[in-house]
């Protein structure tokens, strides 16, 4: 049938129950001007956008590893009063407290007088740097974990959320891929941030004086060469900003932290040395999430993020990806994750009995705008092979580091 307009949509022949997305109750959000004809597009329905990771990147950490007590140097308590009198660190009690699920359920949204951007972690986290890169004059709101940041946007406590999706060293953050399907948020932008790991310590401390270094395990791994040269004991922390706060709070002069340069300013620490990561090209990509999508254009490079599952059959994934290749659409990323609630598919083989296979969700980023007919036609053809299909967002590419 001929359609008069096309929306950003989600499609499902049999929507997987574990996704928690009710397509039938969703509503149209974006309308394009192009007209085109699909025989099978009658089954498309408009829905909210929404996307998800490997455990954590250095920029933002969601895991809470088992962290042994911080090693306290002898004489550290004697130096507390001296250090406080010098004003080496700021009053951390005045810093914003991370939002928790309990806080969100009992709070009200802001008055919208300025853009409020949620991020995971404490003040000084790499995610806060990413939020300020996206919105230089925004009010940043720390959240206790990734899901709290999603909920803060959904419940109108903040306007946007900036969350990591992949790191060039640590890989993808699968937790956020999962949350993008659970929550009805739209990807409206991306931020690429170069990670600059700094070794921080109390004022007047030299790096040679350090016996212990605290940070998130990913950051410790990414700075292994320098830490081995120093011969220090490595202790894991919940995230890099938390490590900086710990050093500032405990006033341990033989303890340093690996964190961002912004964390040094927030907690009143000295940067003993910077760019200590083993790999100089350490870059984290963040997604900007909002309640409403943006109107994509063609005036600048755009990405469109999609998640889908496929019918069984030989060569189905090849056919699904070929719909982009035949239209000269570049595929910049593909990520596969097993379906959590229904990971295995049983196939009856008459010769050898039943065979068991994983069923997957495929996340892809294509370098095309949904305002382009070629992208619309490609996704229209993709639904011929897809059992479930959802467009997570169409947004401008970040081409500046």
TrEMBL record:
Protein name: Arogenate dehydratase/prephenate dehydratase 1, chloroplastic isoform X2
Subcellular localization, as worded in the UniProt entry: Plastid, Chloroplast stroma
Nucleotide-binding keyword on record: no
Record has Nuclease as a keyword: no
UniProt KW keywords: Amino-acid biosynthesis, Aromatic amino acid biosynthesis, Chloroplast, Lyase, Phenylalanine biosynthesis, Plastid, Transit peptide
A GO biological process held by the record: L-phenylalanine biosynthetic process
Pathway: Amino-acid biosynthesis; L-phenylalanine biosynthesis; L-phenylalanine from L-arogenate: step 1/1
Cellular component terms (Gene Ontology): chloroplast stroma
Pfam families: PDT (PF00800)
Top-level taxon in the UniProt lineage: Eukaryota
GO molecular function, one term: prephenate dehydratase activity
Cross-referenced Gene3D superfamilies: 3.30.70.260, Periplasmic binding protein-like II (3.40.190.10)
Location of the Prephenate dehydratase domain: 116-291
């Amino acid at each position: 049938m001929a359609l008069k307009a096309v929306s950003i949509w989600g499609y499902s022949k049999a929507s997987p129950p574990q996704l928690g997305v009710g397509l039938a109750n969703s509503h149209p959000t974006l309308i394009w001007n192009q007209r085109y004809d699909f025989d099978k597009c009658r089954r498309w329905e408009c829905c909210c956008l929404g996307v998800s990771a490997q455990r954590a990147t250095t920029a933002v950490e969601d895991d809470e590893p088992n962290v042994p007590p911080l090693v306290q140097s002898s004489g550290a308590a004697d130096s507390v009063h001296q250090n406080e009198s010098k004003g080496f660190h700021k009053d951390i009690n005045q810093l914003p407290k991370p939002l928790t699920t309990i806080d969100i359920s009992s709070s009200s949204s802001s008055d919208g007088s300025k853009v409020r951007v949620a991020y995971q972690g404490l003040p000084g986290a790499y995610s806060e740097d990413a939020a300020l890169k996206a919105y230089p004059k925004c009010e940043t709101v720390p959240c206790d974990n990734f899901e709290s940041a999603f909920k803060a946007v959904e419940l109108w406590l903040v306007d946007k959320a900036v969350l990591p999706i992949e790191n060039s060293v640590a890989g993808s953050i699968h937790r956020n891929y999962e949350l993008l399907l659970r929550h009805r948020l739209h990807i409206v932008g991306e931020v690429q941030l170069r990670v600059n790991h700094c070794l921080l310590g109390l004022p007047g401390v030299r790096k040679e004086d350090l016996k212990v270094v605290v940070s998130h395990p990913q950051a410790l791994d990414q700075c292994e060469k320098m830490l081995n040269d120093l011969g220090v004991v490595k202790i894991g922390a919940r995230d890099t900003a938390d490590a900086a706060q710990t050093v500032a709070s405990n006033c341990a002069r033989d303890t340093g932290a690996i964190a961002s340069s912004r964390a040094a300013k927030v907690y009143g620490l000295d940067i003993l040395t910077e760019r200590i990561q083993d790999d100089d090209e350490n870059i984290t990509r963040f997604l900007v999430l909002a309640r409403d999508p943006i109107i994509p254009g063609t005036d600048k490079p755009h990405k469109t993020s999609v998640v889908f599952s496929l019918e069984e059959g030989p060569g189905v994934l090849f056919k699904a990806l070929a719909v982009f290749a035949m239209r000269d659409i570049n595929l910049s990323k593909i990520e596969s994750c097993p379906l959590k609630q229904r990971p295995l598919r049983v196939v009856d083989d008459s010769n050898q009995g039943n065979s068991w296979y994983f069923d997957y969700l495929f996340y892809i980023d294509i370098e095309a705008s949904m305002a382009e007919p070629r992208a619309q036609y490609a996704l229209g053809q993709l639904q011929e092979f897809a059992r479930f299909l959802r467009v997570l967002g169409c947004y401008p590419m970040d081409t500046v580091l």
